[in-house]
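Supplementary Note 3. Input sequence used for the single-chain structure prediction.
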Amino acid sequence: MPIRRPTHTLLPALLGLLLGQALAATLKAAEHRIAPGQAPQAVLDQAAPGDKLIFLPGLHEHGLSRHRAILYVDKPVHLELQRGAVLKLRAGECRRMPQGEITTDQDAGKKLDDLEIGGAHDGSPSAHQGPELYNATVYSIRISREGRNGEPDAFSWGDGKLFDLMHQDVPITGDWQALSHGVKIRFHHRNGHSKGSLWFVSYGGPEAYGIRIGHGTQPNTIEGVRISGLGTIDLNSEHNAQPSGLVKNINACVLIHGRVRDVRVEGISMTNTMRSVMCYGEHTGKFLAGGKTGPGESFDAENIVIERTRTINPRGAAYLLGHPSFRGGLRQVRCNHNDMITGLTAIEPNFNLVGYEVIGNVIRSEGAAIHCWRHSQDGVIADNLRVGDNENKPVVIFGAPSGWQQPQKPLLRNNRNHLSDPLPASPSRP
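The predicted structure, written as discrete structure tokens, is reproduced below.
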């Protein structure tokens, strides 16, 4: 009869194998110490998957490299910004562009979407420009009248504050029509528009990113990236032209885009930007009204953790989770225990976001604290504290533009405005 060996005698061999594998992985990983003035993109391009890149204390000031980022990441690496390390966008890297970009409201009720822009903006500022435009110029254009009895439709427009339509009821000619600053527009149809249809035409700077993971349609999944440390990413918005905030691509200190999985952003500070962190998927199908998408390939992002970061952004916003102009999926995002000072919306669960946490954040914002905007679902928003607000603003709000699906209401628990909401009741003692 064969002798049965006790199971516990196999444990040393198994432990030895696991330790050997861990040691081999450690030996393969290398550290690359990046000194101020050294080009980080060149270092990352030479690094192997699993390596660690350490930004040493000091000013790391650079222009943009691949995919309009200071540093584009396409492999699993650990990026550490040591205390005192500042990754900063070089002044003058982004200049105002004479070409504009159209943003349509994509309302499901719009019958015609035929606006075209021409000419070139002369770069001069518009009167009464609002601070929300990031010093860009945005034209608001709305169909004000539907033509009857052979008369053309008419539009109203303005180039100051949003929705301030200073020029009223201009008949549509079907040819180029001058607005201001060298800008022209053309509607291809004189009739057939629905009253109230709205477009914005933006003239500002191009997009820029600090650290970008994925460019949206990369075929292979990028996974296992970690960004950590006590350093700072500074996009230097005071000395670079900014996009308007209404266009498709806007600036962020960290962008996670497309087929990306298992990313951690923790500890770092972010400043002087439009958004601190943005993450969303991508889709190649035609964009349809109300958020629908035609046939195409979806490039989804998932398992993103943003924890214990700090945003100091008194002219901008903070965390954007999902985007209506990038309609791939975004799943399993945790945005927890962060500290932020913003002039605009601090945390925005947005389009095509499924499964998320927004927990334990401390928010000081002149705008919305947490705005669930367009369709997101399966969320938990709990234990967030809004500070410094003496106007009794809510901590969480919900909404969607006309024609879009409303967000699914998340599980809400113990979200407080510390100046207006009472403390939760303490459990009674026996």
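The longest helix spans residues 11-28. The domain at 30-93+206-417 is CATH 2.160.20 (Pectate Lyase C-like).
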